[in-house]
Amino acid sequence: MKSLLSILNNTRIRSIGYQVITLSLVVLFFAFIINNASSNLVEQGIASGFDFLNSTTGFDIASSLIHYDSSSTYLRLFNAALLNTLLVSFISIIFATIIGFSVGIIRLSNHPIASRIAAAYVETLRNIPLLLQVFFWYFAVLQPLPSPRASIDFFNLVFLNNRGLHLPSPELSGHVGLFFSVVIISALLLLYWYKQSKKYRISKGRNRNKSWWYWRVIPLLAVSLAIYNAANIGVNWSLPELTGFNFEGGGVITPEFFALFIALSTYTGAYIAENVRSGIQSIDKGQVEAARAIGLSPFNIMRFIIIPNAMRVIIPPLTNQYLTLTKNSSLAAAIAYPDIVLVFAGTALNQTGQAVEILLMVMLVYLFISLVIALLMNIYNKHFLLIER
Amino acid sequence: MTTPFNNNSRYKKSRYQQWYEALFGSKINSVLTIASLYFLYVTIPPMLNWAIFEANWLGSNASDCNSSGACWVYISVWWQQLLFGQYPSEELWRLVLCSGLFIILLTALILHKRLRAPLPKRLLLISTLLYPFIAFALMYGGFFGLAIVETRFWGGLFLTLVIAVVGITTSFPLGLLLALGRQSTLKIVRLFCIGFIELWRGVPLITVLFMASVMFPLFMPQGVNVDSLLRVLVGVSLFAAAYMAEIIRGGLQAIPKGQYEAAKATGLSYWQAMFMIILPQAITLVIPGIVSAFISLIKETTLVYIIGMFDFLGIVQFTASNSEWIRYTKEGYIFVGLVFWVICYSLSRYSRTLEQKPSNQH
What we know:
heterodimer; A: alpha+beta; MetI-like fold; 3 domains; four-stranded antiparallel beta sheet; two-stranded antiparallel sheet; 13 helices; 70% helix; 8% strand; B: mainly alpha; globular
């Protein structure tokens, strides 16, 4: 009896015991739900597995970046919907960052009116549910706009109505791929030379000769121009035109996209503004005073002292905001923007009934996006941390 | 002799000068002044006109809204649905009683230390533990001869608050266990907790709600039907628990190592050390974090509309399906937004005052 007690009191044995109990509980739980799920699926006559991805969907979606129609497969649908999610998240992230940094900086300015407007903006948007803001933009602002026939037009080029914002869109002809690859390569080369000259300046204490630059930039320009001519790029603007009840030609930003985009970028912008504010406030006053003392201009103080210092504090919460924004883009489901939740977890799920597989795929997508953004931001964060001396 | 240097301390700017400098002291400030004044001029007067001066305040149906301003008649017509959903009118006293009790309990909990004769702690503890049962009995009925009101009749602000409050309270013990598990030396426990937390934090709430509404029934044995509100509550609690776990972990990490070591040195067991030494300190540290988690949860509960429940915001969407009122959803959004704003803003102010309180814990 005594030996049994001593075994039970042995910390190692107890820790193994706890782990075995946890593991078996988890296994039992999964066995229970999987067992139930499989018998329920058989009962309801729902197929399982991922075969449905290769069958045709039979329904169309409102907008897509890649070619998609009702004869496409579910896999195609998944890709189209995923791209829509990424599109609205990406564009909203850019605008939310711009809004956040401007509002955050204005809020810290010593200007009595502007800083209060910025504060009011932050406090209003942060304390109202995002879904309400999405609804407000969609149902109360964009839906009551006039019909296509009575559109609000700007210079007869851009038309705003309840079907969306119609814009002229460029159609490029010629060797577009060649042209764009040249643009990208030149940009990379310029960046590389800039870094080299900076390295030179730091090690030698003086700038490169101007001729060093001339010998590089002028040939590059010449080659690029030659390739541009050879690529025979032509731009043909397609203009929106009213035909019948709707516009044809040009590009269109749908009201669903627009509402989601405005709501996401203004709402997240308010949060980013708070991060920016606390980041800037975290900088020691002495840093700014020292910078002023050595005669840096206000712009250079911002550029070389405040921003690099503040970024270190700002980036981790900023990453979080980007992640939250991407997850919040799932509110698309409420206003029928064809994102992955609406068309895949919604329509496709109703069509096939394969709830487990579909929700698993959708959740994995979000987990994957979260991981990628976290990874990218960690790399960036390291870059800023390395500057620390 | 006066130089700008040695006279600086005695030189005091008049209020006029201070204002002038703030508004037009530099080029940037002048631009900001003009831009912000213009912004206020463009936004404030039309807004006031719409919301107050040209608004329709009295009436009983949409045809009473004939001026160009807001139609506040909307609120007076729909207030009952907005607050309580389809809850039967003759049973409303139960919800009023419930919220009254809740307010009394909350006030007692917050203010009992300031009373001249402090309330006995046991009384507070018992009433806190009893409250959920009383509240459930009052809301759902079936006890003491109260008629049963099924959860599909629950709605409005009432439903929003039920989901948020139940979510945050049940997520607390769960999150506590997960946070402890994540710090545990037991590998399997730790891995499980990390996996659980990261899984829920990585996905949007809407997918969790979809899971609760379509996947959850598949996981139950045949013939078992779980109430849809209960399913949502389970989903929301698990979701909130993952966030709660991270908040509590922050508190646990903020406790100096010496506290852990001292607790161990005095011979306390793991659970004793946790509950008597570490957690009381850690939890006080993270109360502001918990309040902000509660704020986000209140805002996020609006998502239940997407899976077909009529919460506070959902009722506005519901009224939009009524052709008479479809033009006035803007008023509904503004009213709902205002109520959310008041709740969330006051909570966030409260958590800010908690943060600013000097902590003399260590």
